[in-house]
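Subject: complex prediction, re-run

Hi both,

The earlier run crashed halfway through, so I resubmitted it with identical inputs.
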Amino acid sequence: MDREKLRKYAEVIVKVGINVKEKDGVFISANTESLPLVREVVRACWKAGAKDVITDITDDDFILARYEEGHDYIFDYYPEIEIDYYESMMKNNYHDIYIGAPSIDLLKNVNQDYQRRSQEAEMKAMVRLDKYMNSGKLKWVGVGYPTAKWAKSVFPNLSEEEAVEALWEKIFDATRVNEEDPVKSWREHDANLKFYEKWLNDQNFEYLKYDGPGTDLTVYLADKHKWVGGSSETPDGDRYMANIPTEEIFTAPHAMKVDGTLKATKPFSRMGKIINNFSFVFKNGKVVEFKAEENPEILETFMDMDEGGCRLGEVAIVPHSSPISQTGILFKSTLFDENASCHFALGNSYAETIIGGENLSDEERKNLGANKSMIHIDFMVGGSELSIIGYKKDGSAVQIIKNGEWAI
Amino acid sequence: MDREKLRKYAEVIVKVGINVKEKDGVFISANTESLPLVREVVRACWKAGAKDVITDITDDDFILARYEEGHDYIFDYYPEIEIDYYESMMKNNYHDIYIGAPSIDLLKNVNQDYQRRSQEAEMKAMVRLDKYMNSGKLKWVGVGYPTAKWAKSVFPNLSEEEAVEALWEKIFDATRVNEEDPVKSWREHDANLKFYEKWLNDQNFEYLKYDGPGTDLTVYLADKHKWVGGSSETPDGDRYMANIPTEEIFTAPHAMKVDGTLKATKPFSRMGKIINNFSFVFKNGKVVEFKAEENPEILETFMDMDEGGCRLGEVAIVPHSSPISQTGILFKSTLFDENASCHFALGNSYAETIIGGENLSDEERKNLGANKSMIHIDFMVGGSELSIIGYKKDGSAVQIIKNGEWAI
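This time it finished cleanly. Structure:
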C-alpha cells in the first residue's frame, strides 16, 4: 500500500473524523491486520497534540482462540474491569477511533451458542456506558481497513493481493482520499449534508411514506425528532465526523407508530453469515412478521434481545447516486453499504436525533417515541425505484426522494 | 519459526511461568513483532481455563511516533487512568505475562530529555502499584522474543533471517524448550534451585565477601533476609516462575552496609545504549564513586532518580556454568544475561526477600535494611574468577562460590 495515501487517509481520520485538539485523549481500537494504517493514525494523533493515545490491538486468532479453547463459563462472563476502563476513558473525554473490517467467515465454525451468550453478556455489560455515549461529549469515528478475507469476499475472482489493492482503491474513492485535498473535500461535503439536514428539519414532517418493490410503509417520526447529517458537534463546539464515509441524513422514527411492509434491498451480514432477501411486517411499530430466504436466526437473535430490538430506532436518507453507490460494489460492510442506500435500523435510537436529547433520561426520550434497546442493526431499503413522501401536520405532502434521488 | 516449538514455549510460559488456573485473569503485554508467540500463549491461557485474557500489544512505531511527534507537555504526563486500569487488574488478581525484547537502537536518535522525563513520570505514577506487586498475590512472568534488531545485534555477521533463527535456538536452549519434556525439566530445575535456596537460608549469613578482578566488596544482608530462587508461591499456594529463564538465588542486601569496590563483568544496555567497563565504590551502602568507559549518564540518570537509586536492592548468585553461560553468547538482555552470572541490582528490593515482607510496610522493610526505590537495575559481577565467602554472626566463614562455581 502506497504510504502517502495511507497518510492522507490517516489525516482524514484524525482531522475530519475525531478532529483531535491539543490535550485530547484518544483511544484507537483496531486489528493486527490494519497495523500499517494504525501506525499513521497514531502518528497523526500525536502530531495534532494528543495528551495520550491508547491503542487496543486485537487479532483474529485471539478472538478465535477464546471460542475454540475457552471453558464454558466464560461465555456468560464479561469482565467488569474492562467496562471500568472504558468508563474512565469516557469520563476523561477520550475520543474513539474504530478501525475495522467485517469479520468474514472468522466465526463460521464456532459454537453458535457461545457466540450468542458472549454477545449478550457483552451488550448487557456495556449498558453502563450508554450515558457517556449519549452525552454528546465524545468525539468518535469508525473507518474501514481492507483485510485479505474481506477483500476476497468482495472480489472473489482476484488474487488476494489484487483484491486488497482493489478494495483499497474503492475505500479511497468512497472516503474522498483520492481527491486532491481530501480534508477540504470533506468540509465541502459536510456543508452539502448540512443543507439537506436543515431542509428536513425546517419541514418538520409528522410522518414519511415509503414506496418501493415490496415496500409500502408509513413511518411516523419521534416527537421533537431532529435530522442529523455530516459532522456532529460536542457541547464545547468541537466538530467530528462519526462515520467515514458518511452520506446519510438520519433521525429517530416513532417506535410505536410504524405500519406496513418493508423489504430490504441489500444483503445483511453479521457473525460471518449473510441474510439475503428479507422482509418485515410492522404493526404499531413492532415487527409482527419476519421472513428471510436463509439464516433468519441471525436477525431474530437480535430482535429477541429486548423489547426495543423489534422496533425501529433510525431512519436514514441517502441518494441512490452517492459515491458509495458509484463504486459499483457491495462492500458487505454496514459502514460503507449504509451510505449507498436509504436505510433503517432496528433497535436503539441516537440521543442526538431528539432535540435536546443529550440532556434527557432514557424514559423521557422514550416518551417522545425514541426507541431504546441494547442493539442497533442497520439494513438497506434504497434503490432506484424508491419513493419517500413527507407529510406535515397540516396534511400537506412533499416528495423527498423520487426514483432513489433527492426530489428537492 | 517451527510452530511446534512455539507451542512448547507457550506451554512453559503458561504452565510453569504463571501457572494459569481455572478462573484466573491474565494480562499479556507484548510487541507486534512477537505476535506468533502471543497467539500461542493466548490460546494456552484459554485452554488452561482463564476467565479473561487481556492483550496489550504495542509497536515500535507507536513508541517512536510519540517521541517524534508528541508535543512537549506530554513528556511530563503519565495518564492516571492507565494506572487505575492496572490497579483494577491487580486488585482482581490478574496475572501478568511480559513478552519482551531489548529495544536495540529504537530510541537512539530520540531527544534524551524527553526520554528521561517520560521515564520519570511513568515511574512516579507507577509507585501506586507497588503494594500490589509486593503483596505476593500476583503471579507474573517475563520471557523473551527474538526481534530482528535484537537478533542482529547478537549475531551481527548473520543475515536478519539467520540471526533470528539462531537467537531462537539460543532462547530455546536457555529456556529448556529444546528438551524432550520442557515442563518436567523445569520442575526438576526448580527442585535444584530450591536445594540451594534452603542451604543459603539455613546458613543465615550476616555478610558476604566478594573477590574478583576489580571487585573487593563486603555486602551485609538485610535483617530477616530470605534467599529466594526458582518458583515463588502465592498466599493461596499457587506456584509461579517470575522469570524464564531463571538460574539465580537472590536476596536483599542491607542498603546501609555495603563497602568496597565493585566492577561489572558484562555490559549494561538501556534506552538503546550500551555501557561497557563500569565500576562503583560503595561507602556505608551508598555509591560514592561511579566510572564508566562510555555513556555513564545512562546509569547515573537512574541512580539520581531517588535516595534508594544509588544503593543495592538485590544480591544474586548464579554459577558460571549455567545453561545461559553455556550458550556462549551475550544476549544483551538482562533477562538472559543476569542468569549467566552472579549479579547485583541497584534500587528497590523485593518484598519476598524479607521474611514476612509481604505483610510489612515500606518503612518496616526499610528498618530491616531492605532498600526502597523507584528503580531496579541489574548488573553483572560474575565470571570464572569470582569468589564469594559467607560470614556468620559467630565469625565462621563458608566458601559459597569458588572460581565462579558453587563450592558446596
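The first strand of chain B starts at residue 25 and ends at 31.

- K.
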